[in-house]
Structure formats: structure tokens, C-alpha cells
Write a structure and sequence with these properties.
single chain, 5-stranded antiparallel beta sheet, 6-stranded mixed beta sheet, 422 residues, 29 strands, 1 helix
């Protein structure tokens, strides 16, 4: 009277004899003697028998079945004489979610600048039972990496091979079909590695997680990845004409790279260094130069290969052999201790000599210095006779003043140049 019985796998077998029972938990039990087990309709006519008459258990009979719907409870009293009633009954269902597993791997190391490195992600259902509902796979890419493509590439133990729908831009995949116990699916993720990706042994870690489908919690796999310094964008420089000068790059390279190789986007300062008698004219080549006329200039490394040429022009020419020179001689001012002479330069050829026309005095004695010179050239003073050209037979005069003590030797070598002296 007023007994509560729980029938569950793992409980004590019901007694074989007509023994008064008390409330408790008992295992499903069937004795084929002294009674013949046979339910009348609508109960199943040939039930699966529990021990000792059979081996059936609740788990065997109902594992992986859909619990939704109507459940019927049948009672048979094979013996006569006794009578009783069942006040109420209930069924407790234990849902054991399937256990998912996820692994993530790659081969070798990646290099900055790579466009198609791959990660392999494997999702497996270790059971019990199939998943129910949507599974979601999400990959967390390290800074500097971007997903190029993502798709299911293999499967074993079930499925169609196209159960996962992936979106590369978000590095995610979903599966809405049930994944049976024992199935394993492979997702291939292709990534690009930018130059902002950290470098070094296991410098970055890529992680992937899977959840949903009626499973418990989120499963995550981590894959440390070694990143090598990339080859960078290459800058090559040249001069025109050959031998007219050199080009200096600052910096010479990005950290960890060979000379002339740079991380994309690096700004490099270029300086043209002319060799006499040449002077800088312009830059040419890359469209990424900040200026083609300024020296120095800069270039932004926006292309895998950048090529720049420094153009030089001859700025001056020695025309001493093409002119005749005459001088008035020095008139000495004792008060100022200076001497002044006028030098006449005449075009002795039949061709025009381009200006400006410059007179250079070299080999001046110690203590003799120029006073009114235009500038210095190779350590020697020079004077501009005329900024214009000299036509055949035309002349230009220049006043030369030197400071020196009375009686000093003022002899020097006179050289005439056409062009701008540096």
C-alpha cells in the first residue's frame, strides 16, 4: 500500500518469488517461469525481455530515440486472487548530449606575404547519439591573418561531404543536418599572412571552436604557428647616365630583411649624389615617388617591385681651350692691402659657348685670398664672368680682387668653365 517503485537500469533485480516488496529502485526484470509472458493488445505481443529471461535494458531499447510523443504503460497480472491498483506513473528521461571533439593543425611554418597557407580543422562526434540542431564552427584568426577561403573538404563515418556551409569573410561554418555518432568532418581554412603578423617561433596562435547541436558547452582547439619574416617589397635604384652619381636609401631595409627589401607601406628617403661634373636633374620610374624633382625625395613601398632612376646632367664643362684670356694686371691698394685686376675672356671658337661663364683661380700662394669671388669650386675661388652665353668672338669681363701683403706672389692658374659650378 502506497509503495513507490522506480524501475531503472542498474537497480536490484526484482525477486523471483512472491515476496512483498517495499519502495525502492529495481532493475527491469523478467522471469519466464512460472508464468508465460504475453501481453494482450494493445500492448506489444512480443516484447523484448529484460534479464533474467532476456538481456534488454532501457538504455538498449531507447537510446538515441526521439523522446517526443506518447508513452504507454501496460500492466499485466498473470496470477489470480490478488488485486490492486496503480495510482499514477511517470517516465523520467535522461538526455545525454553527444560529445564533440575538435582538432586544428597545419604543416610547417608560414611566411609574411604568403597568400594561401592552410589550416586543417577536424570536428568529430564521439556520441552518444547524433547532434540535434545547428552546429556552429568559428575560427579566431590571429592579428595580421585573413581568411581567403573555407570549406568542408573531407568526411568519414557519415554525412554527405557538403553538410557544412562556410563563410570565409567571418571564418565561420554552420551545419544544420544531424551529425551522427562516429562521424568526422574536415574543414580546410586558407589564409593570407600580412606583414603586420608577428614573427617568430609559435609567434601567433589560431583557435577554432565548435558548439551547438544539443551538445554541452564549447569545444576549442588551439594551433600555435611559427611565422617567418617575409621577403618584403623590393626597391631597386639606378643612375642615368651610368657613373654620374649614386643613390642613397634610408632606411636601407626593414628590420630582419636583406638590403633593399621593405615591409609594404614603408616610406624610404632617396638621396641622389652627383659626381662631378654632373648635377641632379630628376627622378623617374615609380609612380609612388612623392616628388620627381626634389632631392632628397621619398617613395612609399606600395608595389612588390619598385624601380627608381636618378637622372643627372652635366652641369659644367672646362672650356679653357676654347677661349683666350687677357688681364690688366693687379692694381694694389696699400690701405686695404688688396689688389684688383680685370680679366677678359673671349670665345675663340666658331661655336657659341653656353653660360654661365666661370673663371676659377687655383694654386694661389699661402696668404693670398679671394675677396669678391662668387663662390668656391673644389676648394678654389671662382668668379662668374657672365650668366649668359658667349657667341663666337664675343667677350666677357670679370673683376678679380685678392687680399695679400705688398709684394706677395699673386700668380695662379686660370681655368674657364661653362655651366654651374658646385
Amino acid at each position: 500500500n502506497n509503495q513507490n517503485f522506480t524501475i531503472a537500469d542498474g537497480g536490484t533485480l526484482l525477486p523471483a518469488s512472491n515476496t512483498s516488496l517495499s519502495s525502492g529502485t529495481y532493475a527491469p526484470t523478467v522471469y519466464s517461469s512460472p508464468y508465460t509472458i504475453g501481453f494482450t493488445a494493445p500492448a506489444p505481443s512480443s516484447p523484448n525481455l529484460a534479464p533474467t529471461a532476456g538481456t534488454a535494458t532501457f538504455n538498449q531499447q531507447f537510446d538515441n530515440t526521439n523522446p517526443n510523443g506518447y508513452w504507454s504503460f501496460y500492466v499485466m497480472e498473470p496470477g489470480g486472487g490478488d488485486h490492486g491498483s496503480i495510482g499514477e506513473h511517470c517516465i523520467n528521461l535522461t538526455i545525454t548530449p553527444p560529445a564533440l571533439a575538435i582538432t586544428k593543425s597545419h604543416t610547417g611554418s608560414f611566411t609574411q606575404g604568403d597568400a594561401s597557407d592552410t589550416y586543417t580543422i577536424t570536428v568529430a562526434n564521439n556520441g552518444p547519439g547524433s547532434t540535434l540542431g545547428t552546429l556552429t564552427l568559428a575560427d579566431t584568426l590571429p592579428s595580421g591573418m585573413s581568411a581567403v577561403s573555407m570549406s568542408e573538404t573531407n568526411h568519414t563515418g557519415g554525412g554527405t561531404g557538403s553538410d557544412w556551409t562556410c563563410t570565409a569573410s567571418s571564418a565561420t561554418c554552420t551545419r544544420t543536418t544531424a551529425m551522427p555518432q562516429g562521424e568526422s568532418d574536415t574543414i580546410t581554412l586558407t589564409v593570407s599572412v600580412s606583414y603586420s603578423t608577428a614573427t617568430g617561433t609559435n609567434a601567433v596562435t589560431n583557435s577554432a571552436s565548435v558548439s551547438g547541436g544539443g551538445t554541452s558547452g564549447t569545444q576549442t582547439a588551439h594551433d600555435p604557428t611559427t611565422i617567418n619574416v617575409g621577403p618584403g617589397y623590393v626597391l631597386s635604384t639606378s643612375v642615368n647616365p651610368s657613373g654620374a652619381g649614386t643613390v642613397t636609401q634610408n632606411p636601407t631595409n626593414s628590420s630582419g630583411m636583406t638590403a633593399g627589401h621593405y615591409v609594404p607601406g614603408t616610406v624610404v628617403t632617396l638621396t641622389a649624389n652627383p659626381v662631378a661634373p654632373y648635377g641632379f636633374s630628376s627622378w623617374s620610374g615609380s609612380a609612388d615617388l612623392s616628388s620627381t624633382s626634389s632631392n632628397p625625395t621619398t617613395i612609399t613601398m606600395n608595389s612588390a617591385t619598385e624601380s627608381v632612376t636618378a637622372n643627372f646632367v652635366v652641369e659644367y664643362t672646362n672650356v679653357t681651350s676654347s677661349v683666350s684670356m687677357s688681364s690688366t694686371g693687379f692694381t694694389y691698394n696699400k690701405v686695404k692691402k688688396q689688389g684688383t685686376e680685370t680679366v677678359t675672356i673671349k670665345n675663340a671658337t666658331g661655336a657659341t659657348i653656353s653660360g654661365p661663364i666661370q673663371l676659377v683661380l687655383s694654386g694661389l700662394a699661402s696668404g693670398v685670398t679671394a675677396v669678391n669671388n662668387t663662390g668656391t669650386f673644389n676648394g678654389n675661388p671662382y668668379w662668374t664672368a657672365t650668366a649668359g652665353s658667349l657667341a663666337p668672338g664675343a667677350s666677357a669681363q670679370v673683376s678679380v680682387t685678392l687680399a695679400y701683403a705688398s709684394g706677395s706672389n699673386t700668380s695662379a692658374t686660370s681655368t674657364v668653365y661653362s655651366g654651374n659650378l658646385q
